[in-house]
Amino acid sequence: MTEIPDDMLLLDGATAPETRRCEIGGGQAVAYTCRSPGKATENEDTVAVIPYGPGAAVLVVADGAGGMPAGKRASLTAVTTLGESLQAAIDKTTLLRTAVLNGIEAANDAVLALANGSATTMTVITIEGLQARFYQVGDSEAIIVGQRGCIKLQTTAHSPTGFAVEAGFLDEREALHHKERHLVSNFLGTSDMRIDVGTTVELRPRDTVMVASDGLMDNVHTAEIIDFIRKGPLANTVTNAVNLADQRMRDALRGEPSKPDDLSLIVFRKPYRPSRLTNSMV
C-alpha cells in the first residue's frame, strides 16, 4: 500500500466513528465515516479530503465492495494511491482534471495489483475556484444543492436501479425499496472499470457540495438529504443526516428504507462574502 501524503486528510473509521473538519479550497469541509450498526468487522469505507495547490480541493469517498475479500484494503489502497498520484501531479503542474483521471486509473491498477479479488467504488468531487466537477466509479453519489433546495448536480449510481431511475422506469422512492438496490455494475479493481466524468458546475454563494456512500443514500430520501444540507452549519447537517440514517438502519419502519451499511459523507461549502458597495459623491 502507498504512503499517505502529509497534507491529505484521511478517515478510515475502521472500528469507531470518525469526524474531521478542515479549511480547504477556499471553503470548509466536514468529513464523517462510521461502520454499520452492530457490525463486527471493520468499516469498508475510506474518506479523504485532498488539497491540490493553494486553491483547489479534491473530496473522495470510496466504499469497499461488501461480500468481496478485503473490501477495506481495496478502498484504502484506492484512496491513498489517488492521493499519492495527485501529490506527484502538483509537482508537475498537471491540470486538475487530468491529474484526477490519471489518479483514478492508478488507483484501479493498485487495487488490481492486490490480486485478492477485492474491489471498491470511488466518487470524487473537485473544487477549483468556483467550479466543481464529479468523477464517479460505482454507486457512491454526489450532489450539489443551493440554499433554497435547488439541485444543481446529482450523479447517477452505477447500478441497475440507478440507471432505471435515470431512464424514468423507477422513481427514487421505488428504487430505495427495490430488491436489486444492492447490485453495483462498476468498480475499481476490475479490468473494465469506467470513469463517469461530469461537466463543470458553477458554484454560487451558499451552495453545498456533498459526496456520500450508499450507507446514507440507501437510507435517507433525496428530499430529506437536501433539507439537511442546504443551510445551517456544516457540522449540524452531517449530524442530522447521519442520525436519521442510523435510526432507520437500526429500526425498520413501515414504508421507510432500512439497509444497514457503512456510512460515509463529506460536505463542503464556500463562505458567503457579499460584494462591497461603494458610494460616490458628485
Would you kindly provide a written description of the structure presented here, covering whatever features stand out?
The chain has seven helices and 13 strands. The chain is an alpha+beta fold. The chain has one domain: PPM-type phosphatase domain (Phosphatase 2c, domain 1, 4-Layer Sandwich), CATH 3.60.40. It starts with 8 loop residues before the first strand and ends in a 13-residue tail after the last strand.
Using the CA coordinates, give the radius of gyration. Answer: 18 Å
**Name of the CATH superfamily:** PPM-type phosphatase domain
Shape: globular
Q: Give the helix/strand class.
A: alpha+beta
- The residue-averaged pLDDT reads 87
In CATH, the topology is named Phosphatase 2c, domain 1
Which percent range describes the beta-strand content? Answer: 25-35%
Number of separate strands: 13
H/I helix tally = 7
Uncertain stretches of 5 or more adjacent residues: 177-181, 275-282
Number of domains: 1
Provide the helix percentage.
25-40%
Features of this protein?
single chain, 282 residues, alpha+beta, Phosphatase 2c, domain 1, seven-stranded antiparallel beta sheet, six-stranded antiparallel beta sheet, 29% helix, 26% strand, globular, disordered C terminus
